[in-house]
Amino acid sequence: MLPSNHSLSGVLQQKGINRRRFLKFCSLMTATLALPPRYIAQVAAALEKARKPVLVWLQFQDCAGNSESILRSSHPTVLEVVLDLFSWEYHELVMAGAGHQAEAALERVVREEKGKFIAVVEGAVPLADDGVYCTVGGRTALEIARHVCPNAAATIAAGACAWDGGLVRAHPNPTGAVGISEAVPQATVINLGGCPQNPVNTAAVLVHYLTFGELPAVDQYSRPLFAYGRIIHDQCERRAHYDAGRYVQEWGDEGHRKGWCLYKMGCKGPQATFNCPSVRWNDGTSWPVKAGHGCLGCASHRFWDTRSPFYDRLPTVPGFGADVTAGEIGLGLTAVVAGATVVHGIASAVRDRMRPMPPAVPPPANNEPPRKG
Amino acid sequence: MAELRKYGWGEAHRPEPAFPTVRVYVWELPVRVSHWFIFLLVIVLSFTGYYMHNPFIVAQSGTTFLMATIRFLHEVAGFVFIAAFLLRLYWFFMGNSWANWRAFMPVHRRQWRGMGRMVAYYSFLRKDLVHQVGHNALAGVTYLLMFTFMLIEIITGLTLYTQVRGKWALGWLFNWVPGVFDIQHIRLTHFCVMFAFFAFVIHHVYSAVLVSWEERNGLIESIFTGYKFVPKAELEEDAVLSKAD
Prior knowledge:
The structure holds 2 protein chains of 2 kinds. Chain A is α/β, with parallel strands linked by helices. Chain A folds into 2 domains: 8-228, Rossmann fold; 232-306, Cytochrome-c3 hydrogenase, C-terminal domain (Cytochrome-c3 Hydrogenase, Chain A, domain 2), CATH 4.10.480.10. In chain A, 40% of the residues lie in helices and 9% in strands. Chain A has helices spanning 8-15, 19-32, 39-49, 65-71, 76-85, 99-112, 141-148, 160-164, 166-169, 180-183, 199-212, 225-228, 239-244, 254-257, 276-279, 303-306, 326-354, and strands at 54-59, 87-91, 118-122, 125-126, 135-136, 139-140, 154-158, 177-178, 189-192. In chain A, α2 crosses α3 and α3 crosses α11 (199-212). The longest helix of chain A is centred in the last third of the chain and has 29 residues, at 326-354. In chain B, strands 1-2 form a two-stranded antiparallel sheet. Chain B has helices at 2-7, 29-53, 66-94, 109-122, 137-165, 168-174, 177-180, 183-215, 219-225, 232-244, and strands at residues 21-25, 227-231. Classes of the chains: A alpha/beta, B mainly alpha. At the A-B interface, α13 and α17 of A face α1, α3, α4, α8 and α10 of B.
């Protein structure tokens, strides 16, 4: 590993990444951060001067999907530039070291780089039964997180599990899993939701930190606004079909083959915010809706519980079976009321016939004297 | 059956009341205007809203703009609905005693007793209903419930609207809601309450016809004209009672 006082430009030259590719990466980052083009030069200048801050990547209750996502950038720029921007001292999935050596590296970072390094967390932290459901090197995830995250300059929660517990926390949550900001409230956390998170957004957050010395603006869930500020539906390439009223009715039908809107198939694009349609995946190749499947809202808060059933528009009504929709319940209620009204009407008509002649003088409106209060 | 034959099925067994009736201006213009606007808008909002939930018409040509048009109608109708609701809210405080908010709140023992009598009437435990110049206590509580449902629809609707076009004051007012209740449950609530309106409309039209038939005071016509025909003694008693409130 290169000494941490090497500047980025020298490292990139050594790796054979020429200036043109570097500037292309800078413009991608500037665009992703929704900054005006004049910031490209500022981003490039800041990155060239950057002194390789240290980064540790912690993995708790996870599937390594967020690590895979960032490693699967087939186009070399994102991976190489992000890898070379930082000195990655600890990342279980990719590091060469193992055992006590690796844990010692993490300890060294926390001790020597205190308040300067960046921690990336992947996976949820279990709290039930003293956190025994996830241990690394004999320490629970909660112990490690409490040890590392408050000492970091910033903690990036990568993916749904690290943000809000994700799949691990989905009902009934047997391990008592929570996201990192809930497990370690004193840490400075920025949440990158998504299952997995998009590596371009991770890179953009790191680039923003290097350029401006602070984390980007966030929403109420501490998610960066540049990535989570807009509804997917409003950026979707199938939106014209939605507005026109052309919908896929079942998988593989004519509308599906023609690329119509997936609204009726339960697409959660209208209720999810993410920059998925513009940044896309696998170096801008595609994203779920483009590939013909509805959005699950994977970047939404606790999406396994709140966005399911994934193939229906609305959640199921509590107290009813999983395959009874709100519409069926509502129409059923309306039918019951209509039926009861017809029966009551017939009964009232019969009562009216059975009644003796009305009296010639009116009965008092209320059979009691007026009283106060 | 002997009873039935004696009275027959026509109106003959229910002669015009022999006692004098007075023509009373019960429902003032803002009450009637807000009533009919809400009626019209519930129909428009239900149709367009149901289409937005389940687009049952799938356009085949490339020149339609079906969902966008229906969504636009729903949003415009929603804001007109809010205007009608606010008009009625204003009239809770400015209107006559029958439109006043006190007529809806069961705060007096007399109102609770009246409610019990109406329940007994509807469930065939009582032969005659309690005559009222305005609406009876049970109807008042039902309307109060419906006003609450309308308020829920307005709040959830504006919350959903701010998700799409949440800017400035509206965004500031409603952006916090999805942080407390998940947006999918806001949608579910907004959708389910619509069926409460369906059920209410059926019951409301039916009971209005029934009570109008029983009281023979021009109740159905009164929501068009504003006037009811009330026995003089009843009106006097109502005046005493509302003064007592």
